Amino acid sequence: DIVMTQSPDSLAVSLGERATINCKSSQSVLSSSNNKNYLAWYQQKPGQPPKLLIYWASTRESGVPDRFSGSGSGTDFTLTIRSLRAEDVAVYYCQHYYSAPLTFGGGTKVEI
Amino acid sequence: EVQVVESGGGLVQPGGSLRLSCAASGFTFSNYWMTWVRQAPGKGLEWVANINHDGSDKNYVDSVKGRFTISRDNAENSVYLHMNTLRAEDTAVYYCGAAVGWIFDYWGQGTLVTVSS
User: Fold this and answer.
1) Do B47 and A104 touch (CB under 8 A)?
2) Residue-wise pLDDT tens for chain A (112 aa)?
3) Interface residue A37 vs chain B (CB under 8 A)
């Protein structure tokens, strides 16, 4: 099974500043057949289901603000929130979909 | 408008059974993989199972293999999770999700399963 490790567990960022969340997979999630990274990022606010932000490691879901961006390849990935807003307070999860079982990282709590 | 609505959660004793249902609308259900993801109280997300478009391919996390069964009815735009031999550690909010490939686009609000005597 692929283990997803996120860091940090939590971080406090001032409004308007940048938040950076890291995610590392225990094995590569880059497919040699299509050169795509099978990595997604989700945002979860209290009492709500997860919301898809990023897939294929760097493709923003429709309607997601462009202050959210994903980068990385192979085993190391980053979610960046440029210019944090109050409504971005949430827990963020990375998740691979390379093979079953799909697994999530432990989550990163972003606070102001 | 896309809607995904879970039901069937509740309180069940250890060793008991429960069937969760998920009704979907607003998208072409038969084009989507469907999945169940759970979240124990105060914990992170855990993928549980998924099923392909016609039900011919199913995958499970190891901790539920042999106890849980995922199924779907495309005529009813519904997916189910049959849970047997429930344990305390199965206590969680169970979310139903719809995926293009295995990318979860749509989610329900979840249904709470509590396993306790």
Assistant:
1) yes
2) 999 999 999 999 999 999 999 999 999 999 999 999 999 999 999 999 999 999 999 999 999 999 999 999 999 999 999 999 999 999 999 999 999 999 999 999 999 9
3) no
Are B38 and B93 in contact by the 8 Å Cβ rule? The answer is yes
Query: Position of tokens 């997604």?
Result: A40
Q: Do B45 and A49 touch (CB under 8 A)?
A: no
Residue A41, chain B, CB below 8 Å: the answer is no
**Nearest chain B Cα to A100, which residue?**
B59
Q: Rounded to the nearest 10 degrees, how much is the dihedral formed by the CA atoms of A111, B104, A58, A50?
A: 0
Helix, strand, coil percentages (3-state) for chain A, rounded to 5, are: 5, 50, 50
CB A104 within 8 A of CB A3: no
Chain segment B9-37, per-residue pLDDT in tens: 999 999 999 999 999 999 999 999 999 99
Q: Which residue of A has its CA nearest to B63?
A: A101
